[in-house]
Design a protein that fits this description.
The protein is mostly helical. The chain contains six helices and no strands.
């Protein structure tokens, strides 16, 4: 379109002059715009065709954290307490926003009732999650308990067998009472190193004897 306007400026100038201002229908004159005779008429033309803003609310979940922001450019957030949904986290965000915007006693009372309801739902969810967790780990706990019970039974049985083994060992015979301890000690002294003869060890080396005398 721009290329055609550059190649045929006279034709488009004639069309603009015939149409005139899009808002008032008057001549464009020396206006830099090809559609409006002034900036006011351009703004008025767009304002007539704009959609009215209905049901506006701030897009933030926590307007209390934005103190002093947009005082002149944005409208004040109005009180809004939607119905409870299945999303507990979204309901908590909505009730916090409503508590910030509440200005009357009735609004604050409604917020308190909603907080009590959400608190009960939160507690119930935590209890349900705890029950599910216990049910999930219960088989592991039961298996661990059974392992320790079997281990304890095995230890008890091993201890019993060991006790019976020690009970079956005959006691060491004591020396006769009529033997004199000094005579017995002398006999053991004389019988020292009188056990079975051992075979002589072979020489460590075969060949010439060492010339270094032993010390």
């Amino acid at each position: 379109m721009t290329g055609m306007r550059e190649h045929h400026p006279d034709i488009f100038a004639a069309i603009d002059a015939a149409v005139g201002c899009q808002h008032c229908g008057g001549p464009l004159g020396d206006s830099p715009s090809d559609d409006f005779c002034s900036a006011d008429h351009q703004a008025a033309w767009h304002a007539d065709r704009a959609d009215e803003l209905v049901g506006y609310r701030e897009p933030w979940d926590h307007p209390e954290e934005l103190s002093g922001v947009g005082d002149d450019a944005y409208t004040v957030v109005t009180f809004r307490l939607p119905r409870e949904t299945a999303n507990l986290n979204a309901d908590w965000r909505a009730v916090r926003c409503a508590l910030t915007c509440a200005t009357t006693d009735a609004q604050r009372a409604a917020v308190r009732l909603r907080v009590e309801s959400l608190t009960a739902r939160t507690v119930a969810r935590q209890q349900r999650m705890a029950t599910e967790l216990v049910d999930a780990i219960r088989p592991s706990i039961d298996a661990l308990g059974e392992f320790f019970r079997n281990f304890a039974r095995s230890l008890t049985e091993a201890y019993s067998q060991l006790s019976r083994a020690f009970q079956d060992v005959p006691p060491k015979p004591s020396p006769p009472a009529d033997v004199d301890p000094m005579a017995r000690a002398l006999q053991l002294r004389r019988a020292r190193n009188t056990g079975p003869q051992r075979a002589p060890r072979p020489p460590r080396t075969i060949g010439r004897a060492a010339t270094t005398p032993r010390r």
